[in-house]
Amino acid sequence: MKLSDHSLTEDGLVKAGGGGQILLIACGALAREILALKEANDWSHLDLTCLPAKYHLYPEKITEAVEKSVIEHRDQYDDIFVVYADCGTGGQLQAKCEELGVEMVEGPHCYSFFEGNEVFAKTSETEFTAFYLTDFLVRQFDAFIWKPMGLDKHPELRDMIFGNYTKLVYQAQINDPALDAKAEDCAKRLGLAYERRFTGYGDLETTLQRLG
0.85 exceeded by the pTM? Predict the structure, then answer.
C-alpha cells in the first residue's frame, strides 16, 4: 500500500485490510509501523483505520474522534483496539475507552511505548531536557514542529522555545540512513545535541502480538 505522509497527517487512513476480526483505530502517525508489523507477521485478523495525525496538534479532538470511529465500526468487528496512548488527552481517552468497552495502548505517548514504557519511565527521570522525534516526526518535522511553532516566520524564537532542551533524541523505528541524516539536521536546526536511539517498534509490537 502506497502511503503519503501528507495524507496521513490531514486525512488519516480510511481502512487497510478487510475481513479481519479486530479493527485497530490508530493515529495516522503510526500507520506505516502498524502495516509493516501486519505484513511481517501475517496478521490478517487485524484491519486498520487511522485518524488524522494532525490531531496531535489538537489533542482535545482525539477522544471525540476515537469515540465516533468506535461507534461507526463496532457492529462490523468482533473487537476494536485503540492504538493511541494518552497523547495529551489528560486521561479523557482512557476514560472514554473504558466507557465504550474497548482497550487501548498503555503509556503516556508514542515516545514511551516505542522505547518501552518501563524503560522510558526510568530514563525520563534524568532525561527531562530531551526532545524526542520518531520516524514519522522526522519526515514531518516542518509540518509538526517548525511551522506550528512559528519558526518558519520567526526563527529568532527558537532559543526561547527550546532553550531548556539540551538534546534531540531520534527514536528510530527502522534503519534508514536518509532519516538519520534528516534527524541530525533537525537537531542542528533546533540548536540541540543529537542522539540516535534505535527502538524498533517497542511495546507497540508486543501489544499487537497479544491481539487475536
Answer: yes
